[in-house]
Each structure stands twice: as C-alpha cells, then as structure tokens.
Design brief:
Elements lengths: L1 H7 L22 H32 L17 H30 L6 E8 L2 E5 L5 E2 L2 E4 L3 E8 L4 E5 L4 E5 L5 E6 L3 E7 L12 E6 L1 H17 L2 H11 L25 E3 L5 E3 L2 H9 L22 H13 L2
Parallel strand pairs: 1-5, 4-10
Antiparallel strand pairs: 1-2, 2-3, 5-8, 6-7, 6-9, 9-10, 11-12
The structure holds dinuclear copper ion (CUA).
Length: about 325
C-alpha cells in the first residue's frame, strides 16, 4: 500500500509536469540545456522514422510484383554514392550529439569552486541532508540562484539522487562519495530515489525547498536551534519527523515496516529471539544505535543504525517523545 502511494503521490506534484512540452519545471541553470538536447535527439528520431517509413511504403508499392512469378527488373546490389551518403550524414549527426552532450555532461559534473556545500546521505528508505553548521534535515533546503554542491554517500545499498526539475541524477554509493551541483530557482520540488533499493524504494522521497538566500539563512539558524528551545517531548517529535523515523514507525498503533511506537514505553516487548525486554530509555537508545541487537518479534531486521547521526541529547528527547505516546 505504501509503495503504491509512493508511485501515485509524485504524479500529483505540479513541478513534475508544468515545464515546456509537459516536461518537469525547468528549475536549474542546466535544465534548459538538457531539454534542448533531449528535443533535438527526439526530433531527429521523428524525422528519420517518418522518412524511412514513408520511403519503405513507397518502394513497396513502386516495386511490387505485377504478375505471379515476375522476376526483378534489376539485380543492382551496390551503390557507392548512396552508401557514402547514408554513412556520412548519420556520422555527422552523432558527432554533433556527442560533442554537445559531452559539453553538457562536463558542465553538470564539475562543480564551481565557490559552491555552498551540503552533505547528502541515503539510507533505506530516506534521505538526510547535513548543513555546514551540523544541522540535519530530511528535506533538502538550499539558497536560490546560488551554486550548491552536494557531497553524497550511502549508509547501506546503492541509491540514486534524482530531482527531475533540476535535470539532475547521480548514484549514491556506499563507501565512497559522489558529487553533484546545481543553481536553482526558488520553489518546492520533488526528490526521488532512482535506483531500486528494496521494498520501500518508491517511498524514498524528499522535498527540495529552494529559498532566497536571506530566507534560507534564517531557516537554517532557527532549525538548528529549535531543539534547545522546545520542551523535550516536542523537540523529540520534531526530530522524529525530520530524521525520517516516520517512514517506518507510526505513532497511532498501526504497524508499518517497523512497529508502531504508541503505548510501548514502560511495557514488555516480545523479541524475535523469543525473549522480551522492558521498553525504557536504555532500550530506545540501543534500538536507535544498534537496531539489529534486539529486533521486535514479527518484524524484519531492516532498521539502519543512527550511530553518528543522532547526538546523545537528540536520542534523549526522542525517548521523551516516545514516552509521551501513551
Ligand atoms: Cu533508495 Cu531506491
């Protein structure tokens, strides 16, 4: 069900269809360049398809057999000028496509040195974005009309970071860093994972929120300080959504990929190995840092570790939030 929604929901996102020719919005500096190349190749294909089909039809009619058993009028099997012509014209076309395609590729792959840097991490099945001040969010926020560089890596399997409106896609690989850059116009755009990465691949989504620089700076400062300003349970609730916990854990008692966290605090939880454990702050902490060590009965051991991605004080407020879900 979740996967089905993941397929349908993005189709409703207006930024995916409101560009020229029904394409996604052109929201980055190289979107128009990519589209021009796409349409050029598309129209070359249409032109030759129509030409070849028409000639084929015409020749079938022209050289049809007029009586049963009639032999061919000519046995010519070679025409040098014609063969040169149909070799040289396509060669010139593919060289042209390669030249401009490769220039566009270099433009997209080489980030400008002055770019604002954001760290991207992919993990089954959510994205996280870390800003220069250390703050982490599940959505990409970035300043508009500014060169932004993404340094990306995966915590588990292959993912692929994809923003159709930016005409930007690149594999996100465990154990190494891949890079992308963009310069985008203000707006709210859809982010996808474009590499099959497991059951919930299709719901591995995020938003790309592009704001004017001053607005972005204000957002980042507020977002980074909000944990300290809120009461612990509320801060925990905010982190719970921001870090993508909601992808797998509901708080309404309905189990998703992971168990629902409603009303578990202070109760015994049956585990997959047949034992049971009391849900307290320690159990929550160990479930976040070493999720495979005590898997709840009836669930697959698929939760990734948040070691190094959640600080102690953040784990503490998340525990306070889970405690409040009675
Ligand atoms: Cu991550 Cu598909």
């Amino acid at each position: 069900m979740n996967s089905l929604l993941g397929l349908i929901l993005p189709l409703a996102s207006p930024d995916l269809v409101n560009g020229p020719g029904g394409m996604p919005a052109q929201a980055s500096t190289f979107a128009a360049e990519v589209d021009d190349m796409y349409w050029l190749i598309n129209w070359i294909c249409v032109f030759f398809f129509v030409l070849i089909m028409a000639l084929m039809g015409y020749f079938m009619w022209k050289y049809r057999a007029r009586s049963v058993g009639e032999s061919a009028a000519s046995t010519t099997d070679h025409n040098t000028p014609l063969e040169l012509l149909w070799s040289i014209i396509p060669l010139a076309i593919v060289i042209y496509i390669f030249y401009y395609g490769f220039q566009g590729y270099l433009h997209i792959m080489i980030p400008p040195s002055d770019a604002y840097e954001i760290q991207v991490s992919g993990q089954k099945w959510s994205w996280s974005f870390q800003y220069p001040n250390g703050y982490i969010d599940k959505d990409l926020h970035a300043p508009a009309d500014t060169n932004v560089r993404l340094v990306m890596t995966s915590q588990d399997v292959l993912h692929s970071f994809y923003i159709p409106a930016f005409r930007m896609k690149h594999d996100v690989v465990p154990g190494r860093f891949t890079k992308l850059w963009f310069n985008a116009t203000a707006g709210d755009y859809q982010v996808f994972c474009a590499e099959y990465c497991g059951d919930e691949h299709s719901s591995m989504l995020a938003r790309a929120v592009i704001q004017p620089r001053a607005e972005f700076d204000r957002w980042l400062e507020d977002a980074a300080n909000v944990i300290d300003k809120l009461p612990p349970a509320e801060a925990g609730k905010l982190l719970f959504t921001q870090r993508g916990c909601t992808q797998c854990h509901s708080v309404d008692g309905v189990a998703g990929i992971g168990p629902s966290l409603k009303g578990i605090f202070g109760h015994q939880q049956p585990l997959a190995d047949g034992s049971s454990v009391l849900v307290d702050e320690n159990y929550i902490r160990s479930s976040i840092l070493m999720p495979q060590s005590q898997v709840v009965a009836g669930f697959a051991p698929v939760m990734p570790t948040f070691q190094g991605r959640l600080k102690d004080k953040e784990i503490a407020v998340i525990a306070e939030y889970i405690k409040s879900l009675q």
